[in-house]
Amino acid sequence: MAIKSRNKVEPTFNSSSMSDLVFLLLIFFMLTSTLVAPNAIKLMLPSSNSKTMAKQTVTVYINDQYQYFVDDNPADETQLTDLINANIGNDSQATVVLRSDKTVPVQYVVNVIDAVNEINNATGNNHKVILATSPKK
After folding, report:
1. Structural domains of the chain ordered from first start
2. Could you tell me the pTM of the whole model?
């Protein structure tokens, strides 16, 4: 009497559980990467109680050495208008977020506002400048 086994060993590999694991890891890394602070330039922002939020199109930084950065790219005062205009693109109502260190004199802030006003006058658009602040303690 010949006894045959009913359970045969198959040489195939089922990768469905492996793909589930890969997708879970992908979602985990996507979520944790968005929690990282996007500010690459360390600034001590002035404090305020107002909570105005806007969709930011371009971010301009002024650090404590009075250096300008347009979206992490260093800029000179003469290049400020051209770099902001290049980053705004075709958006007619862009918002420029100004992140300035609280020790920076007001003239440097006014230079950024003047650059955005020059762009508005040349293109006829209505771009806005918002000063970023930190919450009061």
Report:
1. 47-135 (3.30.420)
2. 0.60
